[in-house]
Amino acid sequence: MNRVLILGGSGFVGSHVCNKLAALPWRITLPTRHEAHARHLQHLPRVDMVQADVNDPAVLRRLVLGHDAVINLVAILHGDARAFERMHVVLVKHLTQACLDAGVHRLVHVSALGVDGQVPDKAPSLYLRSKSQGEAVLRQAATEGLQLTLLRPSVIFGAQDKFLNLFARLQKLFPVIPLAGAQARFQPVWVEDVAHAIVHCLETPHTAGQTYELCGPQVFTLKALVELAGALCGVRHGRGRPILALPEALGRLQARLMAWLPGPPLMSLDNLDSMRVDNVASGKLPGLQALGITPTSLGAIGPTYLGSPEYQDPCLALRRYRQGG
Ligand SMILES: NC(=O)c1ccc[n+]([C@@H]2O[C@H](COP(=O)([O-])OP(=O)(O)OC[C@H]3O[C@@H](n4cnc5c(N)ncnc54)[C@H](OP(=O)(O)O)[C@@H]3O)[C@@H](O)[C@H]2O)c1
Predict the structure, then answer these.
(1) Of 276, 172, 195, 158, nearest to 18 (Cα)?
(2) Does 196 map to a domain?
(3) pLDDT in tens, 30-56
């Protein structure tokens, strides 16, 4: 039986990947910083959960040993330059070195749309720059024998997403939504399609050496997505809240203020900077169809979770919002 090490396997995308792999002949090693983060996956067969700090190179070297492949899903959305570099560049350096040293050649790495591994310094935000630098490290390792597949998703939707759920909850709680980056464009992709793509790449050797852009069938502005979230969760009988598109200076001020709120920031200055580049397929790289996957529309899936009872209960919406989107 093949063995795969999944870094970041406890997260939103990783949980869907683990569920899919559990139905296939793979044995999964799932490191996590805190076992509680991965408890929802404990019931799956052939999952070996390990409490470990993957930022420690010696730990990572030990983890990689004995596996046939690695999937890397570790990433952060908020932090300072040092934190982004640590997660998206240094960890990737340690991982590629550990893989090459251990003779584990197959790596599927999830990056993000808007990333450019050829010219990392051009990226407009710390998130995209560090992700681009990480891709550059991976490409170098690919010249040394790593069989690398890069996947670049647009924003990902699904029942546990922190994007549409957040905008639905905000509309349950506030009468008006002041919105920065309202005209930024996205091509949302369903988490199950992303997980399917990852598993397909893992199992299909000829996807090594390729980069895929994972996008849904439709392009939306951020404003349209917020409107859709409000409509689907039934705010004001499906009309949603009025949205106040903020000019750039006010949007930046709002992001600065949000950084002071307790808990993970809802929107940071760096998130706004990321939205300077369109989050839509470039058309220059293969997408889900090239992997035999027909992209699922937000219209088909959104109502299944944004129309859930949670959104009929403002107290529950407030509790979830306080828990971090
Ligand atoms: N979600 C989206 O809309 C979206 C869009 C484009 C690209 N992506 C990319 O898709 C991948 C997966 O995203 P996701 O939404 O599934 O992320 P997620 O839910 O935030 O999960 C991230 C994982 O990374 C691990 N992690 C976080 N901080 C860490 C740290 N300091 N040290 C070690 N491990 C850490 C966590 O593991 P433990 O807590 O168990 O240790 C967690 O399982 C990422 O590369 C992301 O950039 C996501």
Answers:
(1) 195
(2) no
(3) 999 999 999 999 999 999 999 999 999
Name the 3-class secondary structure at 118: coil
Cβ–Cβ under 8 Å, residues 128 and 174? no
State whether 119 and 245 are in the same domain: no
- With beta carbons less than 8 A apart as the criterion, state whether 305 and 190 touch: no
User: Count of domains in the chain?
Assistant: 2
- Among 153, 174, 200, give the residue marking a domain's end: 153
Left (φ > 0), alpha (ψ -120 to 50) or beta: where does 234 sit?
A: left
5-37 pLDDT, tens digit each: 999 999 999 999 999 999 999 999 999 999 999
Domain edge (last residue) among 129, 153, 177: 153
Distance CA 271, CA 266 (A): 9
Q: Which protein residue's CA is at the shortest distance from atom 23 of ligand 1?
A: 8
Sign of CA dihedral 91, 92, 98, 99: positive
Residue 72 alpha carbon to ligand 1 centre in Å: 9
CA of 292 to the centre of ligand 1 (A): 25
pLDDT at 307: 85
Q: What span, in angstroms and rounded, lies between the C-alpha atoms of 26 and 22?
A: 7
Contact 271 CB / ligand 1 (< 6 Å): no
Tokens 């905008």 label which residue? 167
At residue 119 the predicted structure's pLDDT band, cuts being 50, 70 and 90, is confident
Q: Are 114 and 279 in contact (CB under 8 A)?
A: yes
pLDDT digit string, tens, across residues 173-229: 899 999 999 999 999 999 999 999 999 999 999 999 999 999 999 999 999 999 999
Ligand 1 center–CA 276 separation, angstroms: 22
Which residues, including other chains, have CB under 8 Å from residue 127's CB and lie 6 or more apart?
77, 84, 88, 112, 270, 271, 274
Using an 8 Å Cβ cutoff, are 3 and 202 in contact?
A: no
Atom of ligand 1 nearest to the CA of 161: 1
Reported as a single tens digit per residue, the pLDDT across 51-72 is 999 999 999 999 999 999 999 9
